[in-house]
C-alpha cells in the first residue's frame, strides 16, 4: 500500500485518545481506520483502542467471496464492538459514558467501501480539490442541513463538536455504509477532528498536493494543526489506492 499515517497528542491534551489501524484483511484487502475516543479520565483512550483492536482482529481472520457479505459482516462486527464498549462502560464507573467515533475504508478492487459513525472524516482528494465523503453525526451538521444555520455560523457554533451518534454510548448502533468508485490518481484522507478543526480544507488540499509522498503530507498536516493551536489530538491517514486482484 502507498500510505502515510500518524497521530499526535497535540499541544493541549494530556492523553492521545485517538487510535488508528492500517492493514489488510485475511484475503488481502487494504483496511484503514481512524477512531477518536470520548469520555473522561482514560475512558476515551480505552474506547478507541477497544474498537481498533476489534477491527484488526476481525480483518486478519476473515475473507469474503461477495461484496454484499463483506459489508454485512463488517456492520455486524462494528455493532458487536459497540455493544462490548457499551457494556464495559456500564461495568466500570471509571469508564462510564465512554465512546468513540469511527471512519473506516476497505478497498475491494476498484471499489472503496466506507463505514462511518461520528465526526471523524473521509475525504477524496483530486487534482482540482477535495470532497468530504462522510457526513458528521453532530448537532451542528443537522442544523446546517435543515438550513437553521449558515456554514459560517456552523464553523463558529459553540456546540459544533456535540455528537449525535457514537460507538459505545448506546446498546444499539446505526452504521453509515458508503460505496465509492476510485479512479487513477485519487487519494483518500481519513482524519480526526483534531486536524479539521484547526486546518481548513483548502490548506489541507494544498499540503497534500505539494508532495507525492503520503508520509510527508501526514507530517505536514500534523505540523499545521499544531501551528494553529493543536487543541486536540491529531490523526491522519493518506492512502493512494492501487490496482489489486
Fold topology:
Elements: E1 2-8, E2 18-24, E3 30-38, H1 43-60, H2 67-91, E4 99-100, E5 102-108, E6 111-117, E7 121-126, E8 129-132, H3 139-145, H4 151-156, E9 176-181, E10 187-191, H5 193-196, H6 201-209, H7 214-227, E11 234-240
How does this structure look, described?
Helices cover 34% and strands 27% of the residues. It is α+β, with helices and mostly antiparallel strands and 245 residues long. It has one domain: PPM-type phosphatase domain (Phosphatase 2c, domain 1). Strands 2, 3, 4, 5, 6 and 9 form a six-stranded antiparallel beta sheet that branches. A hairpin with a 2-residue loop joins strand 5 and strand 6 (111-117). The longest helix has 25 residues, at 67-91. It is globular, with a radius of gyration of 17 Å.
Amino acid at each position: 500500500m502507498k500510505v502515510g499515517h500518524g497521530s499526535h497528542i497535540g499541544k493541549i491534551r494530556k492523553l492521545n485518545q485517538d487510535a488508528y489501524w492500517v492493514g489488510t484483511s485475511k484475503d488481502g484487502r487494504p483496511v484503514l481506520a481512524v477512531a477518536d475516543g470520548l469520555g473522561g479520565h482514560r475512558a476515551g483512550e480505552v474506547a478507541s483502542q477497544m474498537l481498533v483492536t476489534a477491527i484488526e482482529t476481525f480483518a486478519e481472520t476473515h475473507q469474503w467471496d461477495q461484496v454484499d457479505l463483506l459489508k454485512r459482516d463488517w456492520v455486524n462486527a462494528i455493532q458487536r464492538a459497540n455493544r462490548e464498549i457499551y457494556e464495559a462502560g456500564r461495568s466500570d464507573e471509571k469508564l462510564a459514558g465512554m465512546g468513540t467515533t469511527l471512519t473506516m475504508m476497505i478497498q475491494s478492487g476498484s471499489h472503496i467501501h466506507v463505514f462511518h459513525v461520528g465526526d471523524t472524516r473521509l475525504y477524496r482528494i483530486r487534482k482540482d480539490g477535495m470532497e468530504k465523503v462522510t457526513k458528521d453525526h453532530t448537532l451542528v451538521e443537522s442544523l446546517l442541513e435543515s438550513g437553521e444555520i449558515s456554514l459560517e455560523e456552523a464553523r463558529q457554533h459553540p456546540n459544533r463538536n456535540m455528537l449525535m451518534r457514537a460507538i459505545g454510548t448506546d446498546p444499539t448502533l446505526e452504521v453509515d455504509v458508503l460505496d465509492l468508485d476510485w479512479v487513477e490518481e485519487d487519494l483518500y484522507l481519513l482524519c480526526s477532528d483534531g486536524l479539521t478543526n484547526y486546518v481548513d480544507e483548502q490548506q489541507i488540499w494544498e499540503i497534500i498536493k505539494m508532495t507525492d509522498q503520503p508520509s510527508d503530507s501526514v507530517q505536514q498536516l500534523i505540523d499545521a494543526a499544531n501551528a494553529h493551536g493543536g487543541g486536540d489530538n491529531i490523526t491522519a491517514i493518506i492512502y493512494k489506492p492501487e490496482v489489486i486482484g
